[in-house]
Design goal:
The protein contains ten helices and seven strands. A five-stranded parallel β-sheet has the order 1-7-6-2-3. The structure holds zinc ion (2 copies). The site of one zinc ion has 7 residues, from helix 3.
Length: 248
């Protein structure tokens, strides 16, 4: 951290490679705002502060419900994903950790986030018919940020269940404008036909990995593409569930 601050003071921008090197050399410190716990990139106390999604949440969009089962919208729209799992809401320590990873190149925290994300799908561990597929990022945005977050998280999740990692099973065939700020219908229209699938093992269960779930438009477009390519059920695994359309 001191090295980064010193570099900033000298007006030197810490590149992704330099940042990763610094993270390997320096002892881990919790990245949640206001916490400086040593020994880990996201400490247990901060994880305990994460706001879980409600117990009665809709299984496919994770929106709060007063009783179990799908919400009205999912009953009508019939999402292509079978179920969704999030570690918690997109606030507090989870949001801090994701911003550090996504915008400040702190890839060191990815394995810790992957562990949390894999927890709800542990019952699928060691099954030989499961593949882990990241939601494809925009190549332009990856070039700008230097980090492909869903791919990084998916790569760390796959070994936790000894699942096959299939990073290129889905491709983005159309560069879509950002989803931030778009309403639900515009988001679905924006990503329709944006993906293509290749080399899918027939009938396999897919763990589709993304960082944040908002309306589910992107995940469902991916799931539809995967299923038309021959795979079976698609289970979405994300770090956090955002309640508004303006998360970053
Ligand atoms: Zn902490
Ligand atoms: Zn729903």
């Amino acid at each position: 951290m001191e090295a980064e601050l010193a570099a900033r003071r000298r007006g030197v921008r810490v590149t992704q490679g330099a940042r990763s090197l610094l993270d390997m050399l320096l002892p881990p410190r919790c990245l949640a705002r206001g916490c400086d716990q040593g020994g880990t990139w996201l400490c247990d106390a901060c994880i305990a502060l994460a706001t879980p999604t409600p117990d009665q949440a809709c299984p496919t969009c994770l929106e709060a419900r007063t009783r179990g089962g799908p919400c009205v919208r999912c009953s009508v729209e019939r999402p292509a994903i079978r179920e969704a799992h999030a570690v918690g809401k997109h606030v507090g320590p989870l949001r801090d950790a994701l911003i550090a990873l996504k915008y400040r190149g702190r890839t060191c925290v990815a394995p810790r986030l992957a562990e949390l994300m894999a927890n709800p799908v542990r019952p699928l561990a060691d099954r030989s018919d499961v593949i882990v597929v990241p939601v494809p990022s925009h190549p332009r945005r990856v070039r700008r940020r230097g980090v492909d977050v869903p791919r990084l998280l998916a790569r760390s999740i796959a070994p936790l269940g000894t699942w096959e990692f299939a990073p290129d099973a889905l491709q983005r065939v159309r560069n879509t404008p950002t989803q931030v700020g778009l309403d639900r219908a515009s988001r679905a229209a924006n990503v329709a036909g944006a993906f293509a699938a290749q080399g899918l093992p027939s009938g396999h269960l897919v763990l589709l990995v993304d960082d944040v779930l908002t309306t589910g438009a992107t995940a469902n477009a991916c799931a539809r593409t995967l299923q038309s390519g021959g795979c079976g059920a698609v289970v979405l695994v994300v770090l956090s569930r955002a309640n508004n359309l303006h998360h970053r």
